[in-house]
Design brief:
The protein is α+β, with helices and mostly antiparallel strands and about 325 residues long. About 30% of the residues lie in helices and about 25% in strands. The chain has 3 domains: about 60 residues, Arc Repressor Mutant, subunit A; about 200 residues, BirA Bifunctional Protein, domain 2; about 45 residues, SH3 type barrels (Roll), CATH 2.30.30.100. The mean pLDDT is about 90.
Amino acid sequence: MAHELSPTTLKILNILNDCEVHTGSDMAEYLGISRTAVWKVIQRLKQYNCDIKSQHQGYVLGAPLIPFDRNKIEDFIESSNVSLEIFESVSSTNDYLKNKVSLQNIQGCLAEYQSKGRGRMGRSWVSPFGRNIYCSLGYVLHKDISELSGLSLVVGILIARALELLDQRIKPLLKWPNDIYLNNKKAGGILIDIIAEANGSCRVILGIGLNINMKDIELEDVEKPWISLEDILGVKLDRNLVVAQLINSIVKGMEDFVEKGIEPFLEQWKRYDLLENRHISLSTGVETLSGMGKGISQQGYLLLELPSGEVRKISSGDTTLLKT
């Protein structure tokens, strides 16, 4: 169930952001609402595993958060065609847009927390409250699904571009087909959902999960080494600015993709390719192969050089770097 990010929740988070103890009575009086209304917001935030502790004297937040602010994000978004919805909680941003009626503008869904965040191949995506970016953009494209080859690679390139513009110390690499890496650790991922519609058109949902402010948190049930932008830059980032930068890059780059396909992005992929000339293992779901990454084909397929010297084109699969 989706729960919109309310002005009251934002105000309570901003009060608690000094990480000092605040009583329910003081917050209620300051905000002009009842103690019960404050209590309900606090209980809801705790359900999202937000680090709020109840003490005899009141409530205290374990570490500062920078909540999403619609006005701030929209001030930085360059396109007037983006319709943005922001939630405290949603099952997953991609699923939310999949269930919405198609509109002609670009639909954006942003959440502080996902209860059932999805990765590729049925994996879950761990989504701590208020720390990262969980964002989906929905498009209606007058194209056949066959014309969308390599879309996840293009979105990865557009995210990498945005991160470089954010700070020159950020050096993103992309692991085919959909992972964003920093310092050889996973920082984010991309999930593409495509729904065929009548008249040869389709709905495309671009899902982005990106670790932002995670330096002071530990994740359970996450096997692969991970990293966040805060680990790279040493400071907490304003996620409003980061997500606006991502949206601007994706919206502008998608115009090129819709018009020209993957071709203009092929050369750029080489700059970010984590797997080129690296020993990798690849699981297609049918078989597991090992070999040397050799870039991508004109269609965005992975080129894998097997020990025999044969180069295979792989259209989909899950890749792992092998230690050498």
